[in-house]
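Hey all, quick one. A colleague (J.T.) asked me to put the adenosine-5'-diphosphate job into the tracker so the inputs and the structure tokens live in one place instead of scattered across chat threads. No bug as far as I know, just bookkeeping. Sequence used:
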Amino acid sequence: MTKELILVLNCGSSSVKFSIIDPIKEVTYIDGIVETVNSVTSLIIKNFIKNKKLFKKFDKVESYKKLIILIFDILIDQYKNYLNNVIGIGHRVVHGGEYLKKSMIINSFILSKIQESSIFAPLHNPFHLLAINVALKKILKLKNFNVAVFDTAFHHTLPKESFLYAIPYHFYTDYSIRRYGAHGINHFYITKQSSIFLKKPIFKLNIISCHLGSGSSITAIVNGKSVDTSMGLTPLEGLVMGTRCGDIDPSIIFYMVKKLGISIDKVQKILTENSGVLGISSISNDFRKLEEKYNINKKAKLSIDIFCRRVSKYICGYSSLMCGRLDAIIFTGGIGENSSLIRYKIINKLSLIGCFLDIDKNLKNNKKIMFINSIKSIPILVIPANENQIIAKETYDLVKKSIL
Ligand code: ADP
């Protein structure tokens, strides 16, 4: 076993994913997920080296902190031989705000900056902070080797004309209200993988990366750098999502509050948790369920059609930012990787920018990188998302630098 492994922690509000990775060989040794559904907390850990799976169920673990402690206890108890070779812990952090523009070794100053950015990611950053604090205490020998890798970092190359909102300028200078984007770790991974598969150096690569999952975002990447992205101050802006509304006229909020008397907290809940394809269909936020009903339920069809139309519009809009050359369009994320119907409906509206689908290739689903374009088209690729590899490599690089 390699002596230099990285533990990656990806803490969402409803689940915690963790992996032990060899960042150089890009091999995952251990992959785990803990989530609480109704009154049961379940844990699954796959050991790829021994080809074994651990499955445990617990009474609902009440606090998030206890959930993280549980993970560390199990790792220490049952996966000690891997943990002993871990040289750093990489934490995915959704929002780094204006200040945290690249991955950082965590210290009390960085913790305070992550805390400051919680206002822009209330469903994510507070959970990251809890996990980081447990990690710092539980594995003392790695205390100085916890690294934060930010989903906003890749988008720090956005030019002002992309990241500024057309509101009075002082809201940016005084309160840092601007577009930050999200999913940056995966958009960066997609950029690296595209460079390999298209045989083009990153600094010459012009692509549009479509991360379509329960949260969705599109990024315009020119010369390997993010120049525009659909998520904004928070991950609520942009595409229609599972439960999030994406772009809407802000006047809807005034109308709901002033005319309908809905409290501002309730409006926030409606737009983040009860909207998107769930809100339109009243059926589900799970695209698999909506697809099953696509031909038999008008609202299921409508919600998917609205989702796809918005994606096509963003892609065509971003094609205008490509400085005259679009090298590829990439689909990634749970929907982008798996749904041939949704890819078909999106790409069907892109003929004007030279995108045409190969129907048979699009129907394949082999969990691998694949081209799905026809011969006359610009390349269209499906690339499975892999944030963990980037988090592991960034953590490894920073830890090695600080040891030397
Ligand atoms: P997250 O944003 O939480 O990381 P994922 O990228 O894993 O989410 O995407 C989850 C979404 O992908 C869910 O809405 C799920 O329904 C959708 N999805 C997964 N598999 C398929 C499929 N075969 N067809 C359509 N949608 C799918």
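Adding what we noticed when we looked at it: Residues 332 and 365 are 12 Å apart (CA to CA). The longest strand covers residues 27-37.
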